[in-house]
Specification:
With about 425 residues, this protein is of the alpha/beta class. It is about 35% helix and about 20% strand.
């Protein structure tokens, strides 16, 4: 069998002034973030920690403000300062001698007491010991949720990370990066040949079962991105307690999302590219196609629906590379006219140095209109979306159009399991990537 392959163009990051760079760290250091957006000129930061972690909190603040290791501080790299005048601390509390559940309650009480005074901040830094992720009662959840209800994004740092000096030196820049994005800044974009009125929408859902066998609730998500991969927001579909009700809500919400685009963009119809994961059922895919096909031309000029799946059963190797057999990054192996294997990381990709050959992604065109971009152009956009992960400067190379909705699903599912009502979260919050 002979398969055709295409070498797609490697994405370049875009920074302030339209300057480009292959690497995120180098570009930020040389040019600064793509757009400071809504990030305040001098952010206010509330620190949340028990009194026994005072010294660790001080070290965290100084490391972010002044830098540590290769990270030179928030101002030189990300163009926002952390002046002492902007530092706030919740009222003193302690967790000494408390169980994990009691400690989580102490964090929650401290946060809610502070919020009850009408206080606010641009972002919260929560410092606590490492806890069991599966434990429903932990400071990560009990602190984060009440802050989100008040529209305050947060960044959690564990004392375990702070205690590992070599690791923390590299993690400090990642923490600062996430803070910028959560406060409304845009760290970087990517070059794109897609039209400027292109909107990429990643769709996913989560099914969360109630305690003691209660009803399952279906949560749907649609995260939107610009043609340069910049995060625009997430629409949370109303939760439903049956699959039928969820599907009806999904269709209504998708139509609402198109109307949102109309109100934001005016009279400019969108070139819509929808990315879905394998978790979506045939019913959900049918709804997507029906909504897109029935949309008036004033809303949607063209559309394409792609299914993107990590192809763990496949491996592309390059025998000419005897040391590691890495295939070139950006190789698209055509399987059929509407399906291919896309190698996102590989030879020529700085982030692949010293790593094993990664699995490719399966990209399949489920539906499209006649005016939609070609399969190669759509696949090149998938490759570019993998360079848009603001979770870290060396984040996993997964297209954010499928990764971000997955993160939202995981977090809201954890909140729900811990007894929080996620439907109360303010819609304005979804315009920032608070879930990083």
């Amino acid at each position: 069998m002979i398969l055709q392959f295409t070498q797609l163009r490697r994405p370049r990051h875009v920074f302030a002034g339209g300057n480009t760079s292959v690497g995120a760290f180098q570009g930020l250091r040389q040019f600064g973030p793509y757009d400071m957006g809504n990030c305040p000129t001098e952010p206010s930061v509330v620190f949340i920690y028990p009194r026994e972690l005072r010294e660790q909190a001080r070290r965290l603040y100084l490391s972010l403000r002044d830098g540590i290791g290769p990270f030179r501080g928030t101002m030189p790299l990300l163009r926002y300062p952390l002046p002492p005048s902007g530092v706030i601390r919740v009222d003193e509390f302690t967790t000494e001698g408390l169980s994990e559940e009691q400690s989580a309650a102490a964090y929650k009480h401290a946060v809610e007491t502070w919020l009850s005074t009408g206080a606010t901040a641009d972002i919260a830094l929560i410092l606590h010991p490492k806890t069991d992720r599966e434990n429903r009662a932990n400071p990560y959840l009990t602190s984060k949720f009440p802050l989100l209800l008040s529209g305050i994004p947060s960044q959690v740092v564990t004392t375990d990370l702070l205690s590992k000096k070599d690791v923390f030196e590299w993690s400090a820049a990642t923490i600062a990066l996430a803070m910028l994005a959560k406060m409304g800044g845009v760290p970087w974009g990517v070059q794109s040949d897609l039209p400027q009125d292109t909107v990429i929408v990643g769709v996913n859902r989560a099914v969360v079962r109630g305690a003691q066998g209660g009803f399952a609730r279906h949560y749907g998500f649609a995260s939107t991105f610009s043609h340069q991969g910049v995060y625009l927001g997430t629409r949370l579909f109303n939760p439903a307690e049956s699959k039928h009700a969820y599907l009806a809500g999904l269709e209504a919400a998708l139509k609402g999302a198109l109307e949102d685009w109309k109100s934001d963009a005016g009279d400019v119809p969108a070139n819509l590219v929808v990315h879905v994961r394998k978790e979506l059922s045939r019913d959900e895919t049918d709804i997507l196609e029906r909504v897109l096909k029935s949309a008036p031309s004033s809303l949607v000029r063209s559309y394409a629906v792609l299914k993107i799946v990590d192809a763990q059963e496949a491996l592309i190797s390059n025998p000419s590379q005897k040391d590691n057999q890495l295939p070139p990054a950006g190789i698209l192996l055509r399987l059929t006219g509407k399906r291919g294997l896309l190698q996102i990381t590989g030879l020529g990709d700085e982030s692949s140095a010293g790593k094993q050959v990664s699995h490719p992604f399966s990209v399949k065109l489920l539906a499209s209109s006649p005016a939609a971009p070609s399969f190669e152009d759509l696949s090149e956009n998938v490759l570019a979306m993998a360079a848009m992960n603001w979770r870290a400067l060396n984040a996993e190379a997964v297209p954010v159009s499928i990764r971000y909705p997955q993160l939202v699903a995981e977090l809201l599912g954890r909140f729900h399991e811990s007894g929080f009502d996620v439907s109360q979260l303010p819609s304005d919050l979804m315009r920032r990537p608070w879930f990083l």
